[in-house]
Amino acid sequence: RAKAQGKACYEIFDPSMHTKAVTLLQLESDLRRATERQDLMIHYQPIVSLSSGEIAGFEALLRWHHPERGWVKPGELIPVAEDTGLILPIGYWVLREACRQLKIWQEQFATEPPLTVSVNLSGKQFKEANLLGQIQHIITETQINPKTLKLEITESVIVENAEAAAKTLSELRAMGVQIYIDDFGTGYSSLGYLHRFPLDALKIDRSFIINMCNETESAEIVQTIINLAQNLQIYIVAEGVETQQQWEQLRKIDSTGGYGQGYYFSHPLSGAEVEQLLAEEVQW
Ligand code: C2E
Ligand code: MG
Ligand code: MG
Ligand code: MG
Known about the structure:
This is Bifunctional diguanylate cyclase/phosphodiesterase. The chain contains twelve helices and nine strands. By secondary structure, the protein is an alpha/beta fold.
């Protein structure tokens, strides 16, 4: 509260900050209404096996269609949801909806191995006391095999409180769900701690993939992360694969049996578009 008041005083002297605060407040009340009016939806981006070139699963990405502003990007939406605590109900909605959808697709398209869904967890969700109970509840309710659910958390969230994070991750692992580290390489990157956490994959941040074919430094970082994952006996997922050259290079150097994700394969899609893609049995 004191902090909020401090901000309010400052606004008087800075009109641009005032505008920003008003926009944020407006966004917050709109977001509250959106959750009530069901204006939120999920788009799904394919994740492709580097070895087979087939779709292995999807990442669930939150989308908000605002009545006046049109599409609001997660980059703008998630921080507001975090600050207001709305991330908890929204986050569980995404998780439940993604699992419900996955179950339907698994039954409709019986691939081997079965399709998976990846869901992002924010720091606030990860620290929430009810996390394990809620996830267990959603798994039971939607009847998905927990092995086909992948939870994505960023490095900074687990490093922040390593002790507690290790415990939560072990409990999630015991439930059978997979743990993916999102945006890997951009955080604290104290590599020594990684073996202490039960992990299933490192998602190599887009910023390294973008330049891996024209910058030795990025190429080396990608190779280093692949070696690291191989030592830990976990997978890699390359984020932001946009060109054929990146795809081919990744297929050559990956030794983890990993995956790629990015516009080269597909933008995030609506549920109906996903069904079309799966029916076509696309392969890269
Ligand atoms: P993320 O988890 O790293 O998701 C990948 C982001 O990269 C997505 O952005 C996706 O659309 C974008 N992307 C994928 N392929 C490419 C590519 O080839 N090139 C480029 N330039 N971008 C690509 P999006 O959907 O805007 O989401 C941004 C971030 O918002 C996500 O990053 C994630 O951290 C967060 N987010 C999205 N949905 C949720 C959610 O349901 N819960 C939480 N807690 N966070 C979410
Ligand atoms: Mg993610
Ligand atoms: Mg990511
Ligand atoms: Mg990212």
